[in-house]
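User: I'm putting together notes for a lab meeting next week and I want to include a structural view of one of the chains we've been expressing. I don't have a solved structure, so I'd like a prediction I can at least talk through. The sequence is below, exactly as it appears in our construct file.
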Amino acid sequence: MIPTMCLSAVPSRDPRPSPRRLVHRAVHRWLESISLWLAVLLLLFVHPLYAEAMELETEGTGAFHFVGADGQWQEPATLLTTDYRVTVSGLIADTVLRQRFANTGQQWREGVFVFPLPADASVYGLTMIAGERVIEGQIHTRQDATRQYEQARAEGRQAARVEQQRANLFTTYLANIPPGEAVTVELRYQQAVRYQSGQFELRLPTTLTPRYMPGQPLANRATSWQGGWATPTTEVPDADKISPFTVRPQEVGAGSHLAQVALTLNAGLPIAQVTSPSHRLLSTWEGDTVLVTPAQGALVMDRDLVVRWSPQRGQAPSAALFHERFDGEDYLLAMLVPGQAPRQSLPRELVFVIDTSGSMAGTSIRQAQASLLRGLDTLTAADRFNVIQFNSQTQALFPSAKPADAVNLARARRYVQALEANGGTEMAPALAAALVATHHGDLSQELVRQVVFITDGAVGNEQRLFAQISDQLGDSRLFTVGIGSAPNMHFMREAARYGRGSYTAINDLGALSEPLDQLFGKMESPVMTAIQSQWPAGTEAQAVLPQRPGDLFLGEPLIQVIRGQGAEGDVTASGRLADGSQWQQTLALSQAAPGRGLHRYWARQKIDSLLDESLSGQTGESTRAAVIELGLRHQLVTPYTSFVAVDKTPVRAPDEALATEQVPTLKPHGTTAGMLRYPQTATWSPLLLALGLLGLMGSAVAQLWQRRARG
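Assistant: Thanks for the context. Below is the predicted structure for the 711-residue chain, given as structure tokens.
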């Protein structure tokens, strides 16, 4: 029997897909289409935002300053112009600085302006000029000055206040500027003229490099920005007060942030020439007096103005003495210039530290590289060296100092030329790496250990760094090289002082050789130590400042100021030269010429010495009281005293609103936007991350649908 095949028992295959599979395919195609359109939209939407963010970051992040409380873009309403009138008499420069705030808006304004002054400036006067009204400021404790100012601001009265944030950083507060009008704040300050190697120098800062604020945000402080772009941190608790917004010149109003400058040089001796590494100058001689102005007229406030003058050949001073009587007391300022000793070749261990943080981007990093390369050229076969770079991290070229042979020097030059500027300014680890010597193997000879620190000094925790230098210095000497058009010269000078070294500044690649040759010449020369001064009998030791003069390098003078000593008797200075011989010079006090501002110079030196007693910044109550007493007596702005000028008559009605505007500073000339370390929330990275996550989620959903369809 032949079996029969039952075809009906075999299931037939329908060529048409099932309804379920059709649904899966439709959903999958729909997701693919949506993903494609999302990708297109992502490209079209994100690219302009990214381009805008990049423009903000690379061209002028400071523009965030003009975003108001309502989140809307605001044009700057306060125009700022300044006027410097400087008179140099001997070793003291006296400056009248006028800051004119013009309100071009339709609303009453309060202007707040954070600005730099010379590192040793003594602010001793304040005048507010509003129309025909002239109000002289008074010195008060900082707390009392703040109270008076805030009360006047609330009551609609015009008021001005000036307070010190750092030795070279101040803030002007100006309340109730009427719409369409201008108010002028006139400051009077003095500074010491720097003299070295037969040349005088004066520096007028007009802007500042934004400072890096290390540390963690303070949990108990407001997270919103109250005045600057930074918030308080554990390392810099006043970061919001020293971080003014920095913008390009075209981001301020037309004619704003310009400075007129005029200098009158009465050096007390014939002047041969006047030069500047920062600007072209016009100089006019009227006997021994020289009138100096910038050749271009009004200056854009984006770099320091540096003026140098040299006496005629054979007229360089070997000594100078000035006398002033103030408030019933005598003050004397003495300068003694040791003769130049012959240079000696001393084997050295030379450590170069170069700042490669974001604030050095642009011209600054090229200046720093050129400075370091020139330093490498000074090394001899008897020397050892190393190169350390730092930004957010610290990195050394060698594990320890290496011989300065051709191979190591060639490697170092390649290393330096390849450096780029980026990241933060974590200076403390770099200082520790440079100051704490590490050697591998035995050194066959005793080396003079020197550290050259090349930076713009753009940090907010200077006091902690000074304490670190004092603690870790050991047998090293620290020399600082200020880089850029607006370096933090307070850091340069004080770091070198605590480091028993010297300092210089590079303003321009074209004028690099002279200051560096002077600095490296000092480093190669013997140092005069054990310096002492003997004043007439009966002189109080506490009245002589500085009480313990530091070591002197080639071309540096010994300068001391004394209170309570009349122009009678002699002063004798002595020291020990490198060969063991003694240097001594005597000056008759009766030869003193009339001087001005010596009492303020002495008071500033005394205040600095009091603040030096606590490098950690935690000043005791007795020190605070002593500083306040000196500030009030000598009419000086200090960390605890401020000037305030208050008009008696209200000009703004209580129902009229008052807007506060943080007047920005200009981005230092030659820098790039990479140095503007503004809050990261100003970038579009959160948006990009969110969109990226959205895309990943969409892709994941599509994959799941595809797998289920196959199952």
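A couple of points you could mention at the meeting. The longest strand covers residues 78-89. The radius of gyration is 32 Å.

User: Perfect, that's what I needed.
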